[in-house]
């Protein structure tokens, strides 16, 4: 049953419920809706929209499925696991199963190449990284306070950190001229801007590896951020949920390594957000954690975690899976290899039509540079191109402006949520688009075949789509399958 977002009596509801702090009125989420209305299927809907707006890691499920088959007692709903059913069903301690926290701590160490140690007693559960971010925001900031966030950044932060907490986010502007690096000068500028507006800054939130850039923060940058927060006596929240998606050199450096190497810093200011949504590809399990070096945050967070515990059934399964070192080693190596291969397939596929991506070595996406396709460097022009890509090229990619990127023309394109064949179709559509738009000359040999394959119309329908997509009638209902908790 669909619930119309219009004609509701908002006076009956709270300010939070009726505000648009959920951030879903954004092209980022509208793109998903366009996909859901017309999803690509190789045989049933070959002209449909291909979903490239979803940062899912679906390339290594065969390895997980093999493990599940070989370990039936890890699942309590099997004949082999049934004897544990009752104990699992009644367990509801908000500390979590000790074996779960131990296994997650060990997994985090392994992902960081053993260069950092994690104390299981500092692990606090939450419903995915989404819940973890909100929990941290509740613990560290009051309504009206702000976090500085290097941009471009994951659009979900606008919901996760702000909506229910009343906290604000102030972008630390990143620029393509230095590959969107986080600089001390940009952090100072954002800090001063907030102060001028009488906004109290409570912390910095970094994402390493970055969503949407797929790049890593280097040692020097991490040290400079730690020094910055220490000098200002504000917090540092490090989202490291893409830690195991690194597929090429250089290695990932966790904030925990920086602390262990020795740096002048009050550890009470440092907190890590982690989840299994990206590294293992399990966003549906909602396994998120806060790892804080601050005892008070651990204690308070643990009480708050009552609102978003990881189910005991999931804890039990994850504990068994992550305690199997052979499985973990195999999964991590193979997952990184497959992600690397996909990255190469995608970026090499774009090269012949003159499209480049920011050089990256992690994540489930590329940061694609289409600046030269814009008639003018404006957000309006970016949105026009985005609408063409969704509705005519039939690819759901996400425009840079939805990541608070200040330079129009960048797009995030996810490449790990589809099979090889779908990736080929997506690449072919981009190539066709480039040839047809006149950006690239059709190679003489291919000319006839391309002409036959050119099915994109590029008719002048932009205005219609603006209205269609942005219309409140298209807002997803609370029960709609369109609504995903995260991306
Ligand atoms: C940087 C970042 N943080 C947090 C999340 C939310 O993750 P989870 O599914 O664990 O809630 C995402 C999801 O895309 C993300 O990209």
UniProtKB/TrEMBL annotation:
InterPro entries (alphabetical): Aminotransferase_I/II_large, Ethylene_sulfur-biosynth, NHTrfase_class1_PyrdxlP-BS, PyrdxlP-dep_Trfase, PyrdxlP-dep_Trfase_major, PyrdxlP-dep_Trfase_small
One BP annotation, GO: ethylene biosynthetic process
Enzyme class per UniProt: lyase
Keyword Nucleotide-binding: no
Reactions catalysed according to its record: S-adenosyl-L-methionine = 1-aminocyclopropane-1-carboxylate + S-methyl-5'-thioadenosine + H(+)
Domain of life per record: Eukaryota
Pfam families named among the record's database cross-references: Aminotran_1_2
Coiled-coil blocks: none
Alphabetical UniProt keywords: Ethylene biosynthesis, Lyase, Pyridoxal phosphate, S-adenosyl-L-methionine
Cofactor(s) needed for function: pyridoxal 5'-phosphate
This enzyme's EC code(s): 4.4.1.14
Pathway info: Alkene biosynthesis; ethylene biosynthesis via S-adenosyl-L-methionine; ethylene from S-adenosyl-L-methionine: step 1/2
Domain Aminotransferase class I/classII large stretches: 50-430
GO molecular function, one term: 1-aminocyclopropane-1-carboxylate synthase activity
Similarity comment text for this entry: Belongs to the class-I pyridoxal-phosphate-dependent aminotransferase family.
Protein name: 1-aminocyclopropane-1-carboxylate synthase
């Amino acid at each position: 049953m669909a619930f119309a977002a219009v004609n509701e009596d908002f006076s009956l509801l709270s300010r939070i419920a009726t505000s648009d702090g959920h951030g879903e009125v954004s092209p980022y989420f509208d793109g998903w809706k366009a996909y859901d209305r017309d999803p690509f299927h190789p045989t049933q809907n070959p002209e449909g929209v291909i979903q490239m707006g979803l940062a899912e890691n679906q390339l290594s499920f065969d390895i997980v499925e093999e493990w599940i088959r070989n370990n039936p007692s890890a699942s309590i709903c099997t004949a082999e696991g049934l004897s544990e059913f009752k104990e699992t069903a009644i367990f509801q301690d908000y500390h979590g199963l000790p074996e779960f926290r131990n296994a997650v701590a060990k997994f985090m160490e392994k992902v960081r190449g053993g260069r950092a140690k994690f104390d299981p007693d500092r692990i606090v559960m939450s419903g995915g990284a989404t819940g973890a971010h909100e929990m941290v925001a509740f613990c560290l900031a009051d309504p009206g306070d702000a976090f500085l966030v290097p941009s471009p950044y994951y659009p979900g932060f606008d919901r996760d950190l702000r909506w229910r907490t009343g906290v604000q986010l102030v972008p630390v502007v990143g620029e393509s001229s230095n590959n969107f690096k986080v600089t001390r000068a940009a952090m100072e500028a954002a800090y001063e801007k907030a102060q001028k507006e009488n906004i109290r800054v409570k912390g910095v939130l970094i994402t390493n590896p970055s969503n949407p850039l797929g790049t890593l923060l280097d040692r020097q940058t991490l040290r400079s951020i730690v020094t910055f927060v220490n000098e200002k006596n504000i917090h540092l929240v490090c989202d490291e949920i893409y830690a195991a998606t690194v597929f090429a050199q250089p290695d990932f450096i966790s904030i925990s390594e920086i602390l262990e190497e020795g740096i002048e810093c009050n550890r009470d200011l440092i907190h890590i957000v982690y989840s299994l949504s990206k590294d293992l590809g399990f966003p549906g399990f909602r396994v998120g954690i806060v790892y804080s070096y601050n005892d008070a945050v651990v204690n308070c967070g643990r009480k708050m975690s009552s609102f978003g515990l990881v189910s005991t059934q999931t804890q039990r399964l994850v504990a068994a899976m992550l305690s199997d070192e052979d499985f973990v080693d195999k999964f991590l190596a193979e997952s990184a290899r497959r992600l690397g291969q996909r990255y190469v397939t995608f970026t090499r596929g774009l090269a012949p039509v003159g499209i480049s991506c920011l050089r990256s070595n992690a994540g489930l996406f590329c940061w694609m540079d289409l600046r030269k396709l814009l008639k003018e460097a404006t957000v309006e022009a970016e949105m026009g191109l985005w609408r063409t890509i969704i509705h005519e090229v039939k690819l759901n990619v996400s425009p840079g402006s939805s990541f608070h990127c200040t330079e129009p023309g960048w797009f995030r394109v996810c490449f790990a949520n589809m099979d090889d064949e779908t990736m080929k179709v997506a690449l072919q559509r981009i190539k066709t688009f480039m040839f047809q738009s006149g950006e690239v000359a059709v190679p003489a040999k291919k000319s006839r075949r391309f002409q036959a394959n050119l099915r994109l119309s590029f008719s002048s329908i932009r205005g219609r789509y603006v209205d269609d997509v942005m219309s409140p009638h298209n807002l997803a209902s609370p029960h709609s399958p369109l609504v995903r908790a995260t991306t």
